[in-house]
Design goal:
alpha+beta; seven-stranded antiparallel beta sheet; two-stranded antiparallel sheet; 9 strands; disordered N terminus
Amino acid sequence: MRSLPLPLALTVRLAPVAVLATAGWALSSGPDTSPAAKDKTPPETTNRSASAPATQAATKTYATAPAPCGALAGKTVTSLVPGAKAAGKEIPSTDTEVRRTCSWNALKGYDYRWLDVSFEVMETDEAAQKSYKERVADRSGGGDVPGLGDSAYSVVNLTTEDKQQTREGTVLIRAANALVMITYNGSDFESKKAPGTTEINKGAIKAAKEAVAALQDGQG
């Protein structure tokens, strides 16, 4: 296998629980007009409500990012990236507890494939949802992928550089407070053409399903 320049740059990549304090008061059917009632001191409600707990820390579904290079079955890797080693190569991260990415790429004959699997864990579901929406907005032209995580989006784009076509599929998934991102692309360096949209999209979604399953299996 000979190394070639990458056809595309690697694309590297929220609800506090409110505690409600309630207090019950027993009320008579009418006002107490007896003389003793005038001497009664009203109950202290201010101190009681102030001492009640207001909030507690939210529990994260996913505490850390799983090992990305073990997220896909070996046969999946070799079918999507012919000629690649199933072990993959993890990309250095500034914080592996939060963000991890594994990459596979290979050239077989003139046919080139590149696959990335990335996991990113955020503090809350709301933060993950916000980031998910922002990233989807930056990738127009795709569509939702039903039944994958809490929400999933897939898009395929074609680029041409020096007459060489490259087709890249991206699948972005939000699962609770985690984001999973798949990048899958390919080129044919003999014909200068790119693989079809369906091939790239199906391959990216297949990898995405296994990656989400790996995230869920590593929960806790």
